[in-house]
Amino acid sequence: MIEKEIRQTIICLNSKGKSSREISKMLKVSRNTVKKVLQQGVDIPNCEPDNHWTQLIPVLREVFHRCLGNAVRIQEVLNTEYSIDISYSTLTRVIKDTNLREPVKRFGEYIFEPGEEMQHDTSPHDILIGDKKVKAQCASLVLGYSRMLFAQYYICFTRFECKTFLKSGLEFMHGSCQRCVVDNTSVIIASGSGSDANFSPEMNTFARMFGFEFFAHKVNNPNRKGKIERPFSYIENNFLAGRTFASWDDLNLQLLQWCQHSNQKEKRALAMSPGSAYVQEKSHLIPLPKVMPPIYEHSQRLVDSNGFVNLDTNKYSAPEGLIGKKLDVYKHPEEVLLFYKHKEIAVHRRLAGRRYEKSCIPEHHIKHHKEKMDKLASNTEAILRKHHEILDQYIGELKKYVRGRGCRAMNKLLYFKRTYPHDAFIKALERAYRYKLYDLNRLEELIIKSVAGDYFNLTED
User: Fold this and answer.
1) How far apart are CA 63 and CA 75, in angstroms?
2) Distance CA 224, CA 120 (A)
3) Which of 243, 118, 111, 127 is nearest to 172 (CA)?
4) If we measure between CA atoms, which residue out of 193, 246, 242 comes closest to residue 220?
């Protein structure tokens, strides 16, 4: 809105013969504004809503609160329920003039010295891995001064994943800041919120090892960690767009490469790239420990009757001799270690990002039963062969017909050979082979019919 003093100046200059173009250049206002002021005069026009819409204000207040301030829904409700047809631009002007919506408040900007603060947060994203759509947690870490960014994806985000991510992030940054700002997440905070937050002893111990401390901002005050909020939209709309991922490892590898490339792009707020600003900040970071603490999670598991221990819905094999024994299981980011009586007995690659799968070391489960049955089947077959040509041919075709090793079929055939007369047995085999009959029950019927008249008295007295 043009102030009264400027309106007077425009009219005064116009009375002295100045053109609209000259007045526009002198006062740095548009020529349309100059022409409008010359038409309206010195007095500022009344900006109250049109009398036509004055009667709408009580209804508008009720609908505004019901629709949570959504102007599109307000327009639809007014049209359907009250038969009031109002254009969207007019509706937004009436809402503004009646002060129904609170004006945007200035929140300022947080400025940090080098090495003073870093910010950490997570955000859920929908990702296509292979042909499967999954919801993953994107964890990010950014330095407050240089805006250096590091991000990774996890299938879930517990304290174990949090420590794993922060350790990887601090190694990526080659140091840590004095303070790490987080929201009021239960992953890091045990109780309370904001300045009254009590951080988990486990996470406090982790922070002390790297020389920093956690800080939680007030509830509903995301601007306090605004430097980590913006990159989530950048990752979702830039990194994920148009990219395909074969596995979780491929996803995080591509994201790491994307972070390295993104950190070299110039940012308008810095007037340089985060990589260049990081050069200035690196000397102010707290150095990493000379000996990096391992990240692991300890638990105890019983070896089940199948020779596996269960961990995070997946199964890891253990030696058969330990079935029913209690093992110490150490879960690392990349490996799962099994210990029995303080002695390492197995090292598995961790099945991260997968569910209901098995990791089996061949030496753990020796298939004694399978070897025994294979040996029995081969021995029985060896006993049957080389007695008659038709028997050898029938055995060859029978093995194609039966399922598995054919141990039961070979034993039954050997029983027929030993029980029934040789001539009747061979005669029944020739007939069965001619008609491709490999049902041994029907083969036995043929044998019995062959010997019925010779060995059994079937006539009645």
Assistant:
1) 9
2) 11
3) 118
4) 193
| CA–CA distance, 69 with 61 (Å, rounded to integer) | 10
Residue 178 Cα distances to 110, 145, 213, angstroms: 16, 12, 7
Residue pair 137/156 in contact (Cβ under 8 Å)? The answer is yes
pLDDT of residue 456: 55
Helix (H), strand (E) at residue 392: helix 389-401
Model pLDDT for residues 399-425, shown as the tens digit of each residue: 888 776 677 888 888 888 888 888 888
Place of tokens 């005669």: 427
- Between the CA of residue 456 and those of 72, 143, 427, 429, 460, what are the distances in Å? 97, 98, 18, 21, 12
Query: In angstroms, what CA-CA distances link 114 with 89, 168, 179, 303?
Result: 47, 20, 12, 52
pLDDT tens, position by position, 226-249: 899 889 989 998 999 888 899 999
* Confidence band of 373 (pLDDT split at 50, 70, 90): low
CATH architecture for residues 117-284: 2-Layer Sandwich (3.30)
Q: Rounded CA gap, 282 and 285, in Å?
A: 5
C-alpha count within 13 angstroms, C-beta hemisphere, residue 83? 0
pTM confidence score = 0.63
- List Cα–Cα distances, 427 to 331, 381, 398, 417, 433, in angstroms: 66, 20, 17, 12, 10
CA angle (367, 369, 372) in 5-degree steps: 110
Dihedral sign, CA of 201, 207, 211, 216? Answer: negative
CA distance 84 to 63: 12
Please, are residues 171 and 143 in contact by the beta-carbon 8 Å criterion?
no
In 56-144, where do the E strands start and end?
Answer: 117-129, 132-143
Strands 189-191 and 149-154: unpaired
> What does the alpha-carbon distance between residue 140 and residue 401 come to, in Å, rounded to a whole number?
60
| Fold matches, 117-284 and 297-359 | no
Q: What are the extents of the domains in the chain?
A: 4-97, 117-284, 297-359, 368-455
CATH number for 297-359: choose from 3.30.1150, 2.40.50, 2.115.10, 3.30.60: 2.40.50
* 417: CB partners within 8 A, 6+ apart: 384, 387, 391, 425
SS3 63: helix
